[in-house]
Amino acid sequence: MTNPILEIKNATTIVNKGTSSETKILKSMNLTINEGDFITIVGSNGAGKSTLFNIIGGNLVVDSGQILLHGQDISKESEESRTRFLSRVFQDPKLGTAPRMTVAENLLLAKKRGSTHGLHSRKLKQQMDELTAYASKMKNGLEKRMNTATGNLSGGQRQSLSFLMATLKKPDILLLDEHTAALDPKTSRQLLITTDERIREDNLTALMITHHLEDAVKYGNRLIVLTDGKIVADLTGTEKESLTTEKLYSYFEE
Amino acid sequence: MGLIVSAIGQGLLWAILGLGLFLTFRILDIADMTVEGTFPLGAAVGVTAIVNGMSPIVATLLAMLAGMTAGLITGLLYTKGKIPILLAGILVMTAAYSINLRIMGKSNTSLLGHNTLLKADFLKGLPTYYDSVVLGMIVIAVITLLLVFFLQTDLGQAFIATGDNEKMAKSLGIHTDNMKIMGLMVSNAMVGGCGALIAQSNGYADINMGIGTIVIALASIIIGEVVFGELTLTQRLVAVTLGSIIYRLLLLAVLQIGFSANDLNLLSSIVLAICMMLPQLSKALHLDTVFSKGDKVHD
User: Fold this and answer.
1) Which stretches of chain B drop beneath a pLDDT of 70?
2) How far apart (Å, rounded) are the C-alpha atoms in residues B181 and B15?
């Protein structure tokens, strides 16, 4: 039985409002995200993929429509407030980590995602073993660099850390915004495999934007195609399982 | 010797300014011009309070409160009003000039015949100039310990993260606007307090005493960084104080070789410019190679 976590109802976003270049980005979009969904999202540039993430994440407020979390309207909630249920990995490895802070310090911050920050000691040393064990899950040597400033890590390690930070405190919804696009093919492949493992093992609900159709077909249990601010295909079950890259490409030619 | 002790005492007192600016300039990564208004604001509030019969401690705390308010205004203009930080700071700095004149009622107020923190009982009996050294050491020790404690807390880490990567900080639920406002308030409270202490040390408050303070604060920070190199955050706080003392000793040296006190702001800017250009100068003049000769094997 499906259990909706997030529902987007008739969401419309407009840019350059009131000017001659006024444009609708999302057009009365409806989308229900169920618990355990791993949704891959594809679409042309400008189709509204990032805008969709931005309205879920609270970086952008919908001009009309609603966003419901477990039935409660969160459309007006700030980005910071929404982090109590949501985490996000950006395309650029530099965006997800604090470069002058160490790997351990970054992880500790992520552990407190969505919580208030008081004048309590951060207790880094006491939590070091736990954080190191967590870092070792990425299987790329990150656990050996716990005291290294993240600015000194390779792009791959830094993005791995971003992913770890997004999943350290289990989010209700994980947004992956082309999170492997800036990495070399090998590192990108490794991170994608680890991403899939973590999502399955931790039973995460995730949305992943990708421009690689084969990845969109291969990963996830549901696939969405966005065109011109609308969902033109929402494939699950056997439809998703039997999908081929060629068939998916045909959506871009229509 | 007396002049050197005096320079160390001044360096310690002025280090409060450097530590205040360190919070915004190095941790939040913003250039806050408010300090040029907050420093004389603290001096004006402190001196006026003392002249009106308040105890020097209360007067200094009031100066900190005034500085904190100025920081709050800059913070609100910057975060809520979306005014660029440089302009927000300049606006408050300019406004503070009028406020300072209103507080003092004139452009200069003397503390002659009034009590100051430097005349506290526990400082009596010390040799000349040692009063500011002892007072400076106590104040700096307290401030440094409080900052070290704060920066190791959850709130302190959220504050550091805001300056390091605001987008990431937001994505972790850190209210970055609040962090910036808090940083500007704490920083300017320290600068206001420093203004009050320097006024008490000098024996007067002057409407123009804020001119060049940002350069002095930056000099403390940057000299500390250039001299001591890569350090931990706690060590960097100590380096700011040592940088402030070195800066005062440098000024003493240039005055000793015959420069006029009127040239101080020019000299401060030159010292700071040289320190900030040192990495480029070092590269251009191949100083790295010269300094490392004998230490490394060259191809």
Assistant:
1) 287-299
2) 22
